[in-house]
Design brief:
By secondary structure, the protein is an alpha+beta fold. Helices cover 16% and strands 53% of the residues. The protein has five domains: 35 residues; 151 residues, no CATH class; 153 residues, no CATH class; 155 residues, no CATH class; 162 residues, no CATH class.
């Protein structure tokens, strides 16, 4: 046989062997795939997996041409006894070391999962417990040796969440077989169930589910040193109803410590980011947070918890803080939370008060709060300072420029609100209040504050103030104001416009004490250079309205003090003021303004009563003194009622005549007294009694009696053989009464060395009408001795007849009636005087004296 033929036959044999080998290989593969490997191979694979701590059982082991060695219906158990299954897989692909396999040694290099379905019971001891289902589990688990496992591409989906796992774990010591602890299994199952329940609160867009990357590394023989790193990413994630975008979480777990290197998300363009760690053993952790999210919405929507419920935040907020916390060990303990940081709140409403912004450094220690560098921007001012809230006590130290009504939501005392509401502010008003104090959080009425307040360009109770300053001490029971100084603004005050003078007045008060329980205000040591009415109006409006009737030309000096009741109907009010005026004061009396100079008085203000006591002044060049008491109206629109007594001495008659437009009043002065009562709205209500005397004047120069001079001259001139020759009635006096505005007298007397005048009648001060009778006895021509005594002793009716038929020399009678400004005088028959022969007209006239 030739060599060539041998080569051809060898080729044919080799080809046949290859075909047979391929056929055998394909047939074997088909057989192994269809029939499966024998039990011995399955046992070897199972035993090999146990060396890696993977306790499995599977229905069959076959060889897949495309995949390789494949185990079907795999069950993974917790322990070697295979009592507690922890996972079930449809199949796994097992890769072995072929070189070792050729030498008869089975060495598994890796296990591959392709679109596997994992169904894990939450409680392995209870087949009916909820199950953890993973879909599309794919990846390779490398088994470099029996004590190490690693993977870099294992992935699965859980409820749509993409999960990727990389791990590198090993074991130095062989795992010890142990019986599962049922109680531990139960607790673990409860935790898993709680996790699943919690996970049901989260929702996301099906088109962009969250991505979770996990990396596990460490020695299984020292599990406390195992490290788990995690990353979570989601473009759109919702917890309950709270929307989060661009969620980014990174962290790790090692040595029972969970660390968040980054936890961030966005809510409605607001950012939240934090770094934190948590010790699982000690249940304590630390954190650092930067947030601009609406923290109230976050707490309410995520945890159904109201944070700072008294705040209604409509604007943004920013919080930067570092802190630590410790979870309660049992239900009787509370969360231990401490942190410091900086916070900003914008546009929020606190108990009805709108605030633009609040910014502060803060410290929180288990409910105790310290705010430092606090700045509150309110539409009507600012507050700066610091606040400490510890236990049930809130302490503050602040400077405020806010108006009083801003604090009304925090005040429970209605009387204090009423007093503060009387303050009115303008655009030019400036306020500065420094306050140090405390508030009981459980009892808002338990509070106190001390400090100083200064105000400019304000109005209190209708009184314009250039400035007001005071130290104060306030608490729930009382309010004390010290060193009070007010500059009153008189630029628009009527008296200042009329009489000129300084545009301001000064009021100083040593102390004002307001007792809320007793409902009164004590005022100590008032010192003022001011028109009285504005000062009194600060405390008592009705009394001030009455004092307006005293029209001071320039501000007098006021001193005093007292008590004012703060509730309607209170009988505690008794304010005593001493008033000394260095200039003129106008007081309206009988429709004319009297000019009082150097007025001094003690004004006592009581409930519905103003007493002007120790009144003294000079007017018409003479002194006036007495008192006036005014009962103030109880209802608006009602008249006031007054009573008093005035006395005067040597008032110049000519000045009095000019004031009341009485002509021909040239000389003389008046002395007298008048005790009276009346009503402010009508002269008809004037009642009283008094006396009056004229000295060194001429009674008949008075306008009322002036026209009588002509008649008297006509009587005297023929007798004296001279015209207009008669003695002047220089002195006169009378007692009088006033009833319902009508002046009555019955004992007018005026004497000269030779003439006696007496008179009686009335003057209606309201209608300005008179009816007066004047009698005259001229003794220069006929003395009393020349009149027969029997005539005098006759009944006055008979005397009237005699006198009416034939005049008796020296006796004449005149009657004046008509208008006060233009009375008509005429002769009338002589009538018997009221006192008969005891009437002064029948007595010898004494030397002229002033009647006092």
């Amino acid at each position: 046989m030739s060599f060539r033929r041998l080569i051809i036959r060898l080729r044919m044999l080799l080809t046949l062997l290859m075909v047979l080998g391929c056929a055998a290989l394909v047939g074997g593969a088909v057989y192994l795939n269809e029939v499966g490997l024998n039990n011995t191979a399955r046992d070897r694979i199972s035993k090999e997996l146990e060396d890696f701590g993977i306790y499995t059982d599977f229905d069959s082991l076959r060889y897949d041409i495309t995949k390789g060695l494949t185990a079907d219906n795999v069950t993974i158990y917790k322990t070697k006894k295979k009592l507690t299954p922890v996972a079930k897989l449809p199949n796994i692909v097992i890769s072995v070391d072929k070189t070792k396999l050729m030498r008869g040694t089975l060495k598994i290099e890796r296990i591959s999962l392709i679109d596997a379905f994992l169904d894990l019971p939450v409680n392995p001891t209870d087949p009916n417990s909820p199950r953890l289902v993973l879909h599309n589990a794919s990846g390779t688990i490398n088994l470099p040796d029996k004590d190490a496992i690693n993977t870099s591409d294992l992935s699965a989906t859980f409820r749509g969440i993409h999960i990727k796992l990389a791990c590198n774990i090993w074991r130095d010591l062989a795992a010890e077989a142990e019986e599962p602890d049922p109680e531990a299994s139960r607790l673990r199952a409860e935790k898993y169930q709680a996790f699943l329940d919690h996970l049901s609160n989260w929702t996301w867009d099906e088109g962009s589910p969250p991505d979770i990357n996990l990396f596990l590394q460490g020695n299984l023989s020292a599990p406390e040193n195992m490290e788990l790193a995690f990353k979570v990413r989601s473009s759109d994630l919702s917890y309950k109803s709270y929307q989060m975008e661009q969620v980014d979480i990174e962290g790790d777990y090692k040595n029972d410590l969970i660390t968040f290197d980054k936890l961030a998300f966005i809510n409605q363009d607001d950012d939240f980011s934090t770094t934190a760690d948590f010790d699982l053993i000690h249940k304590e952790g630390r954190f650092k947070v930067n947030s601009s999210i609406h923290f109230q919405n976050f707490a309410r929507q995520c945890f159904n918890y109201e944070v700072a419920s008294s705040l209604l935040i409509t604007g943004g907020n920013y919080i930067q803080a570092n802190g630590s916390f410790k979870l309660p060990a049992n239900k009787n303990e509370k969360l231990n939370l401490k942190m410091i940081g900086h916070a900003v709140l914008r546009e929020f409403n606190y108990r009805g008060t709108l605030i633009n912004q609040m910014e502060s450094d803060f410290s929180w220690n288990n409910g105790d709060v310290y705010l430092d560098k606090l700045e509150i921007d309110h539409p009507e001012g600012t507050i700066t300072g610091r606040i400490l809230i510890k236990d049930d006590l809130t302490k503050f130290d602040a400077v405020s420029s806010l108006k009083a009504r801003t604090f009304f939501p925090f005040l429970k005392n209605e009387n204090l609100k009423k007093i503060l509401s009387r303050i009115e502010f303008t655009e030019e008003s400036k306020i500065r209040v420094t306050a140090t104090g405390s508030i009981n959080r459980n009892d808002p009425r338990d509070w106190e504050s001390t400090g100083h307040g200064s105000f400019t360009n304000i109005t209190y109770n209708g009184v314009a103030l250039d400035s007001l300053s005071s130290d104060y001490n306030l608490n729930r029971a009382s309010s004390d104001f010290f060193n009070i100084r007010a500059i009153l603004d008189f630029r628009d005050y009527e008296l200042r416009k009329q009489f000129g003078g300084s545009a301001t007045g000064t009021v100083e008060v040593a102390k004002i004490h307001f007792d809320r329980n007793e409902k009164y205000v004590d005022i100590d040591e008032i010192k003022a250079t001011s028109w009285p009415s504005p000062v009194i109006r600060l405390f008592n409006t009705p009394a001030a309205d009455h004092v307006e009737s005293y029209r001071f030309h320039s501000p007098p000096t006021i001193t005093g003090g007292g008590r004012i009741g703060t509730v309607k109907g209170s009988q505690d009010t008794k304010l005593s003021l001493n008033v000394v005026a260095n200039s003129t004061t106008d007081y309206n009396f009988l429709k004319r303004d009297l000019n009082l100079r150097g007025l001094k008085a003690k004004v006592i203000i009581s409930p519905n009563l103003v007493e002007v006591n120790n009144l003294s002044a000079r007017t018409f060049s003479g002194p006036v003194s007495g008192y006036v008491h005014v009962a103030l109206p109880r209802e608006k629109g009602d008249p006031s009622h007054y009573s008093g007594r005035l006395q005067w001495d040597k008032l110049q008659l000519n000045q009095l005549g000019r004031k009341y437009e009485l002509n021909n009043t040239k000389q003389g002065h008046l002395t007298g007294a008048f005790k009276f009562t009346g009503e402010s709205t009508s002269v008809n209500k004037l009642n009283g009694h008094g006396n009056i005397a004229l000295a060194n004047g001429n009674m008949f120069s008075a306008p009322v009696l002036g026209p009588l001079s002509t008649l008297i001259d006509g009587v005297l001139s023929p007798v004296s053989k001279q015209k207009m020759l008669h003695e002047r009635a220089k002195n006169a006096s009378c007692n009088f009464t006033v009833k319902n505005g009508v002046f009555y007298t019955r004992d007018l007397v005026s004497t000269t060395p030779n003439i006696t005048f007496t008179g009686e009648g009335w003057i209606d001060l309201n209608r300005e009408l008179i009816d007066l009778t004047i009698r005259m006895n001229y003794r220069g021509l006929m003395g009393l001795a020349e009149v027969p005594m029997k005539i005098i002793e006759l009944p006055f009716q008979a005397l009237r007849t005699i006198l009416s038929g034939k005049q008796v020399k020296g006796l004449r009678q005149f009657r004046g009636t008509g208008k006060l400004s233009d009375p008509k005088w005429r002769f009338t028959p002589f009538e018997p005087p009221r006192d008969g022969k005891n009437d002064p007209i029948f007595k010898k006239p004494p030397r002229a004296q002033i009647v006092e």
